[in-house]
Amino acid sequence: MDLFSTKYNLHKDKMILTQSRRPLVSTLFSACRRSISTLPNNSHIYVHKQSPSVNVLSFLPTSPPTGSLAIGVTSQIPPTPDSLRENQSFMKILQSVIREHATTDPEVIAQAQAYASTAGSSLGSGGVFFAQSHSKRSKRRTGYGGGGGTGGDGAGGASSQGGAGGAGRGGHIHVSDQRNPPDYGRVAWPEDIFGSLEVDGAGNFVGENGSYQESGTYRCVTREGILGLSPYLREKLVARLKQLEAEKAQSS
C-alpha cells in the first residue's frame, strides 16, 4: 500500500468514526451518493468530494475513487500548487504511459518532423505546436532557465534547448503539458515538460520509444492550471487506469 492510499484510507476511517451514530447501511449509501463533478478548468478530471476540505481528483468517474489511481487530493477547487497533494503512484503511471505511447502521438510525430526540417528553427516546441499565446504566459519567470536549468527566461536558441529547430541535425524534442503552450521559438517551462525524445536528422525517433527521458521537473499543477494531455495520450492514460482499476477489483 502506497503513502497516498494509506493517508486516504485513514481519512475514510476518520469519516466513518465521526458518523458512527448513524446506521452502517445509511453511512455507506450516503458515501456512494457523494456528488461527482469535473474541474471548471479541465472537464476531463473528476472531482470526488469526500468532505468540505478534501477532494479526490481522478480521470475516472468511479465512486468511491480508487486511491492509488487518483491524481491527488486537494483542499481547493480549482486546485492550486499549494492545495494539491500529488499521488506519486499516479505520476509513475502517467510517465509510463507517456514513455510507451508518445512516439505514436500524431502531435508529437508532427513536432519531430518539423524539428528535422530546415524551417524547424522558426517553430514552437514543447510537444505540440501552438500559435503565440502571450496573454497566458508571463513575460519572465525568475529562477527558470530556457532548457530546464535556472536563471534564464526561456528565450535561448531552440536547438540548444532541446526544442524544435534541428535543421537536418539530430537532437531532442520535448513532450509537454498543453495547459500553457510555449510561444514560437521557445520551449515549455521546466514545470510543464514531461520528458524528452531523441530524433535523428530525418525526424525519426531514435531507439526504443524514442529513448524517452523523464524530465524530473514536471508539476501536476502550476499557476497556469492542472495536468493537460493531448487527446491521444489522454485516451491512452484513461485506458491504462481503467485496466488497473479492473485488475484491482478482481483481486479484491
- Global geometry: globular
Cα distance spanning the termini: 13 Å
Strand content: 15-25%
Helices and strands, in N-to-C order? HHEEEEEHHEEEEEH
What does the average pLDDT come to?
A: 77
Q: Mind summarizing the main beta sheet?
A: 5 strands, antiparallel
Radius of gyration of CA atoms, rounded to a whole number: 20 Å
Number of helices: 5
Query: What is the oligomer described by this structure?
Result: single chain
Strand arrangement within the widest β-sheet reads 1-2-3-4-5
Number of strands: 10
Which residues sit in consecutive blocks of at least 5 with pLDDT less than 50?
10-33, 118-125, 127-164
| Category by helix and strand content | alpha+beta
What can you tell me about this protein's structure?
This protein is of the alpha+beta class and 252 residues long. The protein folds into two domains: 3-87, no CATH class; 106-226, no CATH class. It is 28% helix and 17% strand. It contains five helices and ten strands; from the N terminus they run H-H-E-E-E-E-E-H-H-E-E-E-E-E-H. The protein has helices at 3-18, 24-32, 88-101, 106-116, 231-251, and strands at residues 36-39, 42-51, 54-58, 72-74, 84-86, 171-176, 193-199, 213-214, 221-222, 225-226. The strands form three sheets. It has a five-stranded antiparallel beta sheet. A three-stranded antiparallel beta sheet has the order 6-7-8, with helices on one face. The model is unreliable at 10-33, 118-125 and 127-164 (pLDDT under 50).
